[in-house]
Design goal:
Blueprint (H helix, E strand, L loop, with lengths): L11 E9 L3 H11 L3 E2 L10 H9 L7 H8 L4 E2 L6 H6 L3 H14 L3 E3 L2 E9 L3 H9 L4 E5 L15 H5 L2 H6 L10 H15 L3 H16 L6 H4 L2 H18 L20 H38 L4 H19 L2 H26 L3 H24 L2 H26 L3 H40 L13 E2 L6
Parallel strand pairs: 3-7
Antiparallel strand pairs: 1-5, 1-6, 2-5, 4-5
Helix pairs in contact: 2-5, 3-5, 9-12, 9-17, 9-18, 10-12, 13-14, 13-16, 13-17, 13-18, 14-15, 15-16, 17-18
Length: 476
């Protein structure tokens, strides 16, 4: 797969399946077997009732008893290639096959029938259209690609690179990537790991967390099945924490087991805060770039130009960064350029807000309020990354207290030796559990509120192909 295709949802095709009325069931069985198509469900007022669908499944002369329906609802639906009447299946107590026939009937009710032909419309991955056509051709059923509808967005099927898929739960928890947008799973995972490592900087704790992640990958316990999906994220976070510990000279606290590569958090807290804000500003800049690409894909040049996460908002943000940098380094030219870019961004933002609100005086007032809100939120979002340093300082403070108590008891000798060991072990266990939880939640908060608010403006829906298990006759 070309790398560019892995950064976006799979391209979908709108298709119509045209089958002869007498081959509709065979077509549906093959469609159920393939799992390649999401079939449109027609609005309630446009489709037959449940009783009509059930009548098709059972045969018009059969009556499905309520007890049979209840039994069928409790099992996994299955179908066979050969149709069977509900009476026959009831006598055999094949509730799974009854459920399958009812499901076929439900899907049959979605077909549009005209002059002996039945048509089903839906979505299928563009790369699988030829496969779907080949499967149905033997039944005399045709697959016709249709123009995409103007008012309906295609469903999202994510087939990105393996590295991105292993980090996908982070994005899935937030919502479904819209069909038009770029898949941010790789950026989201890497930024999360970086932020976690900055707040959880300890070589010993980080390596323990990475080991727990690797153990989670190897386990097959049913209770840990959902947690197993995030094993890569846990391993990455643990390694990042170990890397942060090397920078801070922390291994189970300030034990001296590793050298200080960069700085000790408690010795230079202001420097750590400044670097935290700078790192966060860079991550915000990347999220703005992804957001601009998404606005272009969603709405073209107009949306790209005026959106608060498009050129308008990005210009204001980057211009402010340039102006601040010019002030710090003493460059008047950079200051002037930054102010000019900020002014351009604010004008575009106001124009976009005014266009959405209308040109009346109330629209002007609404645009001004939204502009002020955007300015305040952008500044707050950038400063919010100071928590990377704040929680790194908290981690170093707790570890320092534990280590100070340990050394004080150890040097006292006698009964202080086992007490020192107990304080060191229990203190590190508690610190590990508390700080891992806090760092995980704070990194998630920064991810969702600061970064994703630039990347996403809406939510898509997951591609849900229609699928029913098809069993062979010899398995009956």
């Amino acid at each position: 797969m070309p790398w560019a295709e892995g950064l976006q949802p799979a391209r979908m095709s709108r298709v119509a399946i045209v089958a002869a009325d007498r081959r509709l069931r065979d077509t549906l069985v093959e469609l159920a077997r393939s799992g390649l198509m999401e079939v449109d469900i027609r609005p309630v007022g446009e489709r037959p009732s449940t009783e009509q669908a059930a009548a098709f499944a059972a045969g018009a002369s059969d009556h499905i008893a309520p007890a049979t329906r209840i039994a069928a609802d409790r099992v996994t639906a299955r179908v066979t290639a050969r149709a069977r009447g509900i009476d026959e299946l009831e006598r055999a107590e094949r509730w799974d096959l009854i459920a399958g026939e009812l499901e076929l009937g439900r899907m049959t009710a979605q077909a549009i029938k005209r002059r002996g032909a039945a048509v089903l419309v839906g979505w299928t991955p563009r790369a699988r259209v030829a496969e779907l056509s080949g499967r149905l051709a033997a039944l005399g059923t045709a697959v016709q690609e249709l123009p995409p509808p103007a008012t309906a967005e295609a469903p999202t099927l994510l087939v990105g690179p393996r590295a991105g898929r292993s980090l996908r739960p982070l994005v899935d928890t937030y919502g479904t990537v819209p069909y038009a947008d770029i898949d941010p799973a790789l950026f989201a995972g890497l930024s999360y790991i970086l932020m976690f490592g900055a707040m959880f900087g300890d070589v010993g704790h980080g390596m323990i967390l990475a080991a727990l992640g690797l153990s989670l990958r190897r386990t097959h316990h049913p209770a840990l099945a959902s947690a197993r999906r995030v094993w890569a994220l846990i391993v990455g976070a643990g390694l990042a924490g170990a890397g942060g510990g090397l920078l801070y000279g922390e291994m189970f606290g300030p034990t001296g087991l590793v050298p200080v590569v960069w700085l000790r958090p408690l010795d230079q807290p202001v420097m750590l805060l400044v670097v935290g804000v700078i790192v966060g500003s860079v991550l915000l800049g990347v999220s703005y770039v992804i957001g601009m690409a998404n606005r272009w894909r969603e709405g073209g040049a107009g949306r790209l130009l005026y959106a608060s996460s498009g050129i308008a908002g990005t210009s204001a943000y980057l211009g402010a960064g340039a102006a601040v940098t010019g002030t710090v380094v003493g460059s008047p030219a950079l200051q002037v350029a930054g102010v000019a870019i900020v002014a351009l961004g604010l004008v575009l933002l106001f124009a976009g807000f005014l266009g959405a609100a209308g040109g009346a005086p109330t629209g002007v007032l609404q645009a001004l309020v939204e502009l002020f809100d955007t300015i305040v939120r952008t500044a707050a979002n950038a400063l919010s990354f100071a928590r990377l340093a704040a929680f790194g300082l908290a981690h170093a403070t707790i570890s320092g207290i534990i280590w100070a108590a340990t050394t004080a008891l150890w040097t006292s000798g006698g009964a202080g030796l086992p007490a020192a060991a107990l304080i060191f072990i229990v203190g590190n266990v508690l610190a590990f559990a508390l700080e891992a939880l806090v760092a995980a939640l704070q990194a998630l908060r920064l991810e969702y509120y600061e970064l994703f608010s630039r990347i996403f403006t809406g939510e898509g829906r997951v591609f849900a192909p229609w699928r029913v298990t098809v069993i062979d006759e010899e398995d009956l």
